[in-house]
Amino acid sequence: MKVQIINKSKHQLPAYATIQSAGMDLRANLDQPITLAPMQRCLVPTGLYMALPIGFEAQVRPRSGLAIKKGITVLNSPGTIDADYRGEVCVILVNLSTEPFVIEDGERIAQMVIARHEQVAWEEVEVLDDTERGAGGFGHTGV
Questions:
Q1: For residues 71 and 62, what is the distance between their CA atoms, to the nearest angstrom?
Q2: If you write DSSP's letter for every residue of 61-103 in order, what string do you get?
Q3: Other beta carbons less than 10 A from residue 67's beta carbon
Q4: Which of 4, 25, 75, 96 could link 108 by a cystine bridge, Cβ 3.0 to 4.6 Å?
Q5: Measuring CA to CA, which residue among 91, 83, 84 is closest to residue 34?
Q6: Cα–Cα nearest to 78, from 57, 95, 99
Q7: Residue 23 exposed, middle or buried by CB count within 10 Å (0-12, 13-18, 19+)
Q8: Where are the domains of the chain?
Q9: 4-10+21-116: CATH topology
Q10: Is pLDDT larger for residue 88 or for residue 141?
Q11: What is the C-alpha to C-alpha distance for residues 120 and 122, in angstroms, rounded to an integer?
């Protein structure tokens, strides 16, 4: 699938690291480093603008390495970029660690997955069909 993209950053376009990768790393596009204090959040620009085809979204997700090693994650995970959005792709990061974290220009801060989606047409009814699970909630199917 081809996607139109404008790269106003100083960095290469996002790319798949392996032939079977689902996500592409997004890089911070900064004039100066950002220090993210514990429990602080910030909006990090990438310098990327894109036009996704109708029926697709871009999901912005945490990078597992930053999450486990540094406690840095995407606050609204996964963040959704809709097909009709034309602004800059930015990432909301939060520092869940006890140490400050410095975000450098060009640092890989998140990953982006392009995914197909459907829109629903609601059909209001009075009763839903029965299932074995029924209304069982969290933890209902496990021990």
A1: 10
A2: E--HHHHHHH-EEETTSSEEE-TT--S--EEEEEE-SSS-EEE
A3: 16
A4: 25
A5: 91
A6: 57
A7: middle
A8: 4-10+21-116
A9: Deoxyuridine 5'-Triphosphate Nucleotidohydrolase; Chain A (2.70.40)
A10: 88
A11: 6
Structure confidence at residue 141 (pLDDT): 67
Determine the Cα angle at 3 with ends 103 and 14, to 5°: 25
Question: Which pLDDT tens digit goes with each residue over 45-95?
Answer: 999 999 999 999 999 999 999 999 999 999 999 999 999 999 999 999 999
130 vs 3: CA distance, rounded Å = 42
The predicted-structure confidence for 10-38, as pLDDT tens digits, reads as follows 999 999 999 999 999 999 999 999 999 99
